[in-house]
Design a protein that fits this description.
With about 325 residues, this protein is of the alpha/beta class. It is built from twelve helices and 16 strands. The protein has helices at about 40-50, 120-125, 125-140, 155-165, 180-185, 200-205, 215-220, 240-245, 250-260, 260-270, 285-295, 310-320; strands at about 1-5, 15-20, 30-40, 60, 65-75, 85-90, 100-105, 110, 145-150, 170-175, 190-195, 205-210, 225-235, 275, 305-310, 325-330. Strands 3, 5, 6, 7, 8, 15 and 16 form a seven-stranded mixed sheet that branches. A six-stranded parallel sheet has the order 11-10-9-12-13-14, sandwiched between helices. Strands 2-1-4 form a three-stranded antiparallel sheet, with no helix packed on it. The protein is globular and about 55 Å long.
Length: about 325
């Protein structure tokens, strides 16, 4: 089958089109004939080797984390799907490979494609929607009436997080560039800060939760906008000791993670707040709930551009410019 593979850690130069064997279909797997896949910033982190301690790779490695398509074959234990079903999924963390004609996914990570969505729209949703869902609800414990600050409201995670947070009854603040202020407001944000004109830490105060998608200086300043007892949940900052423990890392790696996150955890303590790192996990159950919200029009996919499969490297390069509004998607021929 045709696929785009990473030959070693590095830049986009290490990504090549290649012929690869079809993935092994285990007893609990669904083999999806991929119709569309989306590109995510985590693809760059994986490519660059930033996540190799958490997600070590064997090369050549097929990239791609989101897939929408048609069930081609099922494993012996699969009961929820049959060949011909239209589905979407966040590919299992240790079995990435959506930039290919076929991908095998554990049944528990797969959900029926929302009937109102095209394949491209469905492929745009799993990783960003599950990230938003799990940061806001599972870790952040967001409640109706609370105030949440979501970094980068026009990004893939931000566009979905704004819509979910509003649906769950929160007051939502976010940041974006001048050109996107009105557009982000239409997604439902109550307060939109133009980061080119104002610093968010000078505008916001008393927030219950921050969803950090940027890391670095933006993460450090996020603690300043929280009320006592507030939380920062990050998908871009350093992993924390709780994450290392949940991942079953050995003692040495747990100590490394403890050191890497020491400064951020100290900042959190100084501001009477808490810090958590999230590595989103696949969930077919949550995607089913999301599908109902999509079909009801409560949440809508935001797709910036669609590239042909042959231009997967160009799709990665475009997303890396940081100019995309929402998601970048690859369509299979």
């Amino acid at each position: 089958m045709k696929a785009f593979v990473l030959t070693r850690y590095g830049s986009n130069k290490e990504i090549q089109a290649a012929e690869m064997p079809e993935p092994l279909v285990k007893a609990d797997d669904v083999l999806i004939q991929v119709k569309a896949a989306s590109v995510n910033p985590v693809d760059f982190k994986i490519r660059d080797g930033q996540l190799k301690q958490v997600l070590p790779l064997r090369f050549p490695h097929i990239l791609g984390n989101d897939a929408a398509g048609v069930v081609a074959r099922i494993g012996a234990n699969v009961t929820q799907f049959k060949p011909g079903d239209e589905v979407y999924a966040r590919v299992d963390v240790d079995r990435m490979g959506a930039f290919a004609e076929y991908v095998a996914v554990n049944e528990a990570a797969v959900a029926p494609k929302p009937t109102s969505s095209t394949m491209e729209e469905a492929a745009a949703m799993p990783l960003v929607a599950l990230t938003a869902w799990q940061t806001l609800r599972d870790v952040g414990k967001l409640q109706p009436g609370q105030r949440v600050f979501i970094h980068a409201g026009s990004g893939g995670v931000g566009t979905v997080a704004i819509q979910l947070a509003k649906h769950w009854g929160a007051f939502v603040a976010t940041t974006t560039s001048t050109a996107n202020v009105e557009w982000v407001q239409k997604l439902g944000a109550d307060l939109v800060i133009d980061y080119k004109k104002e610093a968010f830490e000078n505008v916001l105060a008393g927030y219950d939760l921050v969803l950090d998608t940027l890391g670095g200086e933006a993460l450090d300043k996020s603690f300043q906008v929280l009320k006592a007892g507030g939380k920062v949940v990050s998908v871009a900052g350093p992993p924390d000791p709780q994450f290392a423990k949940e991942q079953g890392m050995n003692w040495f790696l747990q100590q490394v993670i403890r050191l890497l996150s020491f400064r951020v955890r100290r900042l959190a303590k100084k501001n009477q707040a808490s810090y958590s790192f999230l590595l989103m996990h696949p969930s077919g159950a949550q995607l089913r709930e999301l599908g109902a919200l999509l079909d009801a029009g409560i949440v809508r996919p935001v797709v910036d551009r669609v590239f042909p499969f042959e231009a997967t490297k160009e799709a990665l390069e475009y997303l890396e410019t940081g100019r995309a509004k929402g998601k970048v998607v690859v369509r299979m021929s």
